[in-house]
Protein 1
Amino acid sequence: MADSNTTRSGGIGFLGLLCIVFVVFKILGNITWSWWWVFSPIWLPTLLILAILLVIGIIAIIVALCER
């Protein structure tokens, strides 16, 4: 029988746990936030990455236009 050195990574991350906490607080009435903010731990990281990519793209376009 061969040794199997496999590692598993999974489970809920910090942002997923934070989202669950926010949902529980919202349902229990502890916070009066909009549902957009309750689910923000899910969509904010994606928005941040898209914003960074947009800035990099704009810089690349400016550099390309300046080289002409």
Protein 2
Amino acid sequence: MSFGQAIAAGFLNYINFSGRAGRSEYWFWVLFTVLAAVASEFLDAAIFVNHGGLSPANAPLNTLVTLALLLPTFAVAARRLHDTDRTGWWLLLACTGIGIFLLLYWQYQEGTPDANRFGSEPPGGPQLNLI
């Protein structure tokens, strides 16, 4: 799956917590969210100049971007866990702080090669194609 396809899939399935998402779809979505957050921070800094630095009160663009991408990010992360044959409820491990490392490890793992209890193999297969 290419970068553009992953972004389109993220927005088309923004409330779809069922099914599976391959590694490329997940990691391209993460890259997109990071780039969007950085771009909105720069725009906030350029538009809403504050001598004391940026605060949430004068960073409305970043707040809007964060809110717009929050639900699709949870959905693609849950579908990615489904690809590794784990339930999306494991995302609650992030609340512990240290659970983030386990989630990152699981998100990096290859998905199950065939159909599992969450559906058939996602398009693009289990490989991670960054080029």
